[in-house]
């Protein structure tokens, strides 16, 4: 049995990493911008979770998502943007996608959201690790 090997040049690796980082960032940038367009609805959703100052929390969430997304897309301070988004994902996932407190009809949907967010969290940790190992921001 023979095994195939795929050789990837360092330039290709760098390009693929930049594209992957930008795709992760676009998720957050779009999400933050969408919240701006539906401010009242998202604020009500935050209020329904019985969190204090929902409008202020929404502005904070939009700021984190937009700024973090832009750092990943541009590569400027991507290490810190990834870390900020990773930290942001943990409480928002637990607060807004708790499948354990959802009704039966919605529990699998919320479980799917948890799995998606865990995968995205993994992506943020990969970006943070790669950027940390470089010792500098990419040009």
TrEMBL record:
Topological category with respect to the lipid bilayer: Multi-pass membrane protein
Keyword Cell inner membrane attributed: no
Main location: membrane
Highest taxon in the source lineage: Bacteria
Keyword Transmembrane helix part of the UniProt annotation: yes
PANTHER family: INNER MEMBRANE PROTEIN YPHA-RELATED, OXIDOREDUCTASE CATD-RELATED
Pfam families in the record: DoxX
Name of this protein: DoxX family protein
Alphabetized UniProt keyword annotations: Cell membrane, Membrane, Transmembrane, Transmembrane helix
Coiled-coil regions listed in the entry: none
């Amino acid at each position: 049995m023979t095994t195939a090997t795929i050789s990837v040049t360092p330039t290709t690796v760098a390009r693929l990493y930049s594209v992957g980082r930008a795709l992760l960032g676009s998720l957050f940038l779009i999400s933050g911008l969408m919240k701006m367009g539906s401010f009242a609805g998202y604020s009500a959703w935050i209020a329904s979770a019985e969190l204090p100052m929902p409008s202020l929390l929404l502005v904070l969430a939009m700021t984190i998502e937009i700024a973090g997304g832009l750092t990943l897309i541009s590569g400027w301070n991507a290490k810190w943007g990834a870390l900020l988004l990773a930290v942001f994902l943990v409480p928002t996932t637990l607060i807004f996608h708790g499948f354990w407190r959802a009704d039966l009809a919605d529990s699998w949907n919320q479980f799917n959201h948890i799995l998606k967010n865990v995968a995205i969290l993994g992506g943020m940790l990969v970006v943070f690790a790669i950027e940390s190992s470089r010792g500098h921001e990419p040009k």
